[in-house]
Amino acid sequence: MFTQDRLEYQPIPLPHRHHMSDEEMVTAAHDFYSFMQRRHTVRDYSSREVPREIIERCILAAGTAPSGANHQPWHFVAISNPEHKHRIRLAAEEEEKGFYEGGASEEWLRALEPVGTNQEKPHLDIAPWLIVIFAQRYGQFADGQKFKNYYVPESVGIATGFLIAALHHAGLASLTHTPNPMKFLNGLCDRPDSEKPVMILAVGHPSEDATVPSVAKIKKPLDEILSVRE
Ligand code: IYR
User: Measuring CA to CA, which residue among 125, 97, 100 is closest to residue 110?
Assistant: First the structure.
């Protein structure tokens, strides 16, 4: 919803079409699966810088995601400024301390054991970019008038998935980080209260000695995640 003027339904010819045989599509599906299998959630980053243009293009790719009524209820804040990143780290670690030292249930902490997380979040300093993702419950016209957004968590989830895949395609690693609670991000990112912080995506290149938890590579087999009725 970009304008207060009433937008009308106006069909246009489908702008792009695939022209692939079934064989080509099978190959493409296999190739994409292999490509996505090579994506790893990375917690250890090198200090190698990442040009802003790559981040901007990946955000544009995320912005192509489908959304409720095409309202695109998301906002991304990309931060490379070291002081700004450090402020986020300090605030996130403060929240995480509360989480790991009593806020989280025993069951939750047990679930996180094989992932190996704790309250230390050095990636928030070291990763060259932090992308903070906000969900907009309401949109706002230039004059301040509000309008409702629809299917907001679904829409932002899809856009975030696109973003993670776009970053991987561009040769970058990322980490979905969700400090608990996250409201401090509104203040630190200068975003209105009507927006809900969804996650911080740390983005960069893995360090030489980067590791991943072995459990992260155990993915459910097809027969567990798919039922087919033919
Ligand atoms: N926010 C905490 C805890 C955490 C929770 C889940 I669910 C994870 O998959 C990973 C971590 C942290 O970032 O450490």
Answer: 100
Instruction: Map out the domains of the chain with their CATH numbers.
Output: 41-225 (3.40.109.10)
- Cβ-contact 161, 224 below 8 angstroms: no
Q: For 131-190, give the DSSP string.
A: EEEEEESEEE-TTS-EEE-SSHHHHHHHHHHHHHHHHHHTT-EEEEE--SS-THHHHHHT
Q: What is the pLDDT of residues 98-139, one digit of tens each?
A: 999 999 999 999 999 999 999 999 999 999 999 999 999 999
- pTM here? 0.96
Report how far ligand 1's centroid is from the alpha carbon of 4 (Å): 40
For the beta carbon of residue 146, count every other beta carbon within 10 angstroms: 11
**Residue 119 Cα: closest atom of ligand 1:** 14
- The answer, yes or no, to whether any atom of ligand 1 lies below 6 A from the CB of 117, is yes
Beta strand ranges found along the chain (DSSP E): 74-79, 129-136, 138-140, 146-148, 173-177, 195-204
For residue 180 and ligand 1, the question of a CB distance below 6 A is answered with yes
CA distance 132 to 197: 7
Cβ–ligand 1 contact at 27 (below 6 Å): no
Report the amino acid identity of residue 138.
Y
